[in-house]
Design goal:
The protein is mainly alpha-helical. The protein has three domains: 84 residues, Orthogonal Bundle (Fumarase C, Chain B, domain 1); 230 residues, Fumarase C, Chain A, domain 2 (Up-down Bundle); 61 residues. Helix content is 65%, strand content 5%. A two-stranded antiparallel ribbon has the order 1-2. Strand 1 and strand 2 form a beta hairpin. The chain is elongated. It starts with a helix and ends with a helix.
């Protein structure tokens, strides 16, 4: 279940301790591979495996002098290991550690995000079936269109989140790539076997080719996938915000006992959870843009991407984890008002039957242009005069000359619009 504990796990992924622990794993695995190649004595490897450790405070202390995080890290580890530390980081460059570690952290974060998405999908599916036959008006351009059901709206969200899940899965797979290929990616001092071994041990794929770094399009894809998930969550939240407006009042966020909506107006119940989601989606999109800006670097590498990734890595994954948790909690407790949906649908006096009559006229020999003018005239009159559409159009002699009044009334039934709901649900849910 998505809760505060899961968000704590996400934050721990980006902690100094986990970052340095991952670096240490990479360095030890590289030593193991070099030992298999006969370049590190077995005794030295055993010492490294047994003694290699670090202290976060000590690393930060050394970094104040070196102004280089990886050197500070290897210096700290050397204080634990002793003489055998000369084999640590042998033939490697800082980005071998940094990029491989970044991929591991993003992979760990993706596992949590994908679990979140699965839990949200389950909630959306439950709501879809709960409200499968709850009729409401569909809207286009914010204006009444034709009837749908609230369950169909949920089915649409479910289908969209399924696509977002697949995008995240693909991005998580593609970002799980490491490189241990040296200063400019040529394996000049460290054989390709080391990269293959380290990546296999850590659940990554070796980059087929690299410069000093893993190419940033790999990471850009990941951040764009997260931003797309955020876009869908914002879309859903925006819909809830619209449906919660006082003039609509078809759904509402749960308002807990003792909750306050406004410091000035005691009557207020505001869609604050949905608004949170909408706002945070903007950060995800901004971070995705920053990730795309990181793709174009100078030659084999410059450092302009580094500061960006130290911010957007933890920020985007923590934000998306929070958004998914927030929206799932919102949806679980969402209040739905079917009676208001029905009342709103009937406010226009049934003018949403206009297309039904138009198509029937064309079936009976009237041109589409003539039929459109006839039906539009009655629909606008019904809306302006606040009369029932059926009564208004039945007073149009041109229409009743083609479709008898009794047949017009039979055509104007709401279940016509929802008769294929079960078919759509089978398509979506199987």
């Amino acid at each position: 279940m998505i809760d505060r504990y899961s968000r704590e796990i996400m934050k721990r992924i980006w902690s100094d301790d986990n970052r340095f622990r991952t670096w240490l794993q990479i360095e030890i695995k590289a030593c193991e591979a070099l030992c298999k190649l006969g370049q590190v004595p077995e005794a030295a490897l055993k010492t490294i495996q047994e003694k290699a450790n670090f202290n976060v405070e000590r690393i930060l202390e050394i970094e104040k002098e070196t102004k280089h995080d990886v050197i500070a890290f290897t210096t700290c580890v050397a204080e634990y290991v002793g003489e055998a530390s000369r084999y640590i980081h042998w033939g490697m460059t800082s980005s071998d550690v940094l990029d491989t570690s970044f991929s591991i952290q993003l992979k760990q974060a993706a596992e949590i995000i994908l679990q979140d998405i699965d839990e949200l999908l389950a909630v959306i599916k439950e709501k879809a079936f709960q409200y499968k036959d709850t009729v409401m008006i569909g809207r286009s351009h914010g204006i009444h269109a034709e009837p749908i059901t609230f369950g169909l709206k949920m089915a649409l969200w479910f289908d969209e989140m399924q696509r977002q899940k697949r995008r995240m899965q693909a991005a998580a797979e593609n970002v799980a790539v490491g490189k241990i290929s040296g200063a400019v990616g040529t394996f000049a001092y460290i054989p390709p076997f080391v990269e293959e071994y380290v990546c296999a041990e850590l659940g990554l794929k070796p980059a087929p080719v690299s410069s000093q770094i893993v190419q940033r399009d790999v990471y850009a894809e990941f951040f764009c996938a997260m931003a797309q998930v955020g876009c869908s969550l914002e879309k859903f939240a925006t819909e809830i915000r619209h449906l919660m407006r006082t003039e609509v009042s078809e759904v509402s966020e749960y308002f807990s006992p003792g909750q306050k909506g406004s410091s000035a107006m005691p009557h207020k119940k505001n869609p604050i959870l949905s608004e949170n989601v909408s706002g945070l989606a903007r950060l995800l999109r901004g971070n995705a843009l920053a990730a795309m800006e990181n793709v174009a670097l100078w030659h084999e590498r410059d450092i302009s991407h580094s500061s960006v990734e130290r911010v957007i890595g933890p920020d985007s994954t923590i934000i998306l984890d929070f958004m998914l948790a927030r929206f799932m909690g919102l949806l679980k407790k969402l209040l739905v008002y079917p009676e208001n949906m029905l009342e709103n649908m009937n406010k226009t006096g049934g003018i949403f039957y206009s297309q039904r009559i138009l198509l029937e006229l064309t079936q009976r020999g009237v041109s589409r242009e003539d039929g459109y003018r006839m039906v539009q005239r009655s629909a606008h009159a019904a809306w302006e005069n606040r009369t029932a559409f059926v009564d208004t159009i039945c007073r149009d002699a041109g229409v009743t000359a083609v479709i008898p009044e009794a047949e017009i009334k039979k055509l104007c039934t709401p279940d016509f619009f929802t008769r294929h709901v079960d078919t759509i649900f089978k398509r979506v849910f199987g």
